[in-house]
What we know:
Blueprint: E1 2-13, E2 16-28, E3 33-38, H1 44-51, E4 59-64, E5 80-83, H2 95-104, H3 110-123, H4 139-151, E6 157-160, H5 169-184, E7 188-193, E8 204-209, E9 212-214, H6 221-236
Helix pairs in contact: 2-3, 2-4, 3-4
Amino acid sequence: MLELQGVCKARREGPREHRVLENVELQLSRGEYAVVWGLRSSGRSTLLRIAAGIEPPDSGVVRFEGADPHRGNGALGEGIGYCHLHFGAGEGRTALESVMMALLARGVTAARARARAEDALERSGAADCRTRPVACLDRADSVRVALARTVALDPRLLVIDDPTHGVELMQRDGILLLLRTLAGEGIAVLASTGEPTGLSGADRTLALSEGRLRGSAAPELGDVVALHEHGRRRAAG
């Protein structure tokens, strides 16, 4: 369903160029749940934006169902759902309104938008939040409503960056289980995490370090710790 071949991306930092991604290769199948682990500023967010068609690579090939999502109108909002974990001022006051707004913006009738929004909130475990202001939601409920907003668009690929960041420890398993469930329903899920606990439930986990994506299966905990310590040494000097 999703394929990245030889993807490279660089950022300009003053007079120097920083290679964010270097010849990244990635394939994702229908119903597969894959998680990319990486330290902060490792490039995992950039990788996910490129995979979702939001940001183009400098070089390399990105294909979603055989087509380049960066050309033409792209597949974003149709086949690809990039889950933004924030709510803008114009996205509705309540959780239900927020999910409905995403549908109304795509020409769905009000009655149909409400029905689909209600269903998406139920699937995401956020039905109890439907009448609550999004500004008053705790982090876990906010993630669930954001997922409902994306799921309501019926994506075939769901991309979400660091879904458990800021979520209370006891509530993280529920978020990860939800992603696992969505994959079980046939949605390809590509997520990122900065913590080893965020790899739980994934079909495949990969590690991103120094621009290179490593591993096709779950990394050993020792490898994750080694990458973490290497990143600390780099940050220290």
